[in-house]
Amino acid sequence: MNERKLRNTQQYIKWSMPEKPTVKINFDASFDNKTHQSAYAIVARNHNGEIIIAGSYLHTMVAKAFEAKAIAYYEVVLLWKDMGLTDIMIEGDSKSTIIKCMIKSRDKSQISAYIRNIQEEKDSFQAIVFHYVPKSAN
Questions:
Q1: Which CATH superfamily is domain 25-133 in?
Q2: pTM, full prediction
Q3: What CA–CA distance (Å, rounded) separates 79 from 84?
Q4: Between residues 2 and 101, which one has the greater pLDDT?
Q5: Which residue ranges make up each domain of the chain?
């Protein structure tokens, strides 16, 4: 009888500091389908790994989980624009939302309004990078 061996192909990735003068923002969003509420939390660190800001935010009347992620991305962009930071890296674990934020083409999904708003705000920064990371590094 042939014996099969299982291998763990999932890599563990650890958080890494940004290069100076970039501020790295990590966040995660969650969604409650019963109450249609979403929440997200952020942690922003500088090139020394020092926490600049951390917080959590709650939203009501959110239709779907992917909308919760898009709202979080948009609000993170607005927060850093309002703080006057010009060089940021936003890391999250929603690959599809990150791809939509990076591509300049017109989005036609249900979160298109949020993506369009993010695209418009990107010009406010000298450098803004959206980066996908798995949950282990977020």
A1: Ribonuclease H-like superfamily/Ribonuclease H (3.30.420.10)
A2: 0.80
A3: 9
A4: 101
A5: 25-133
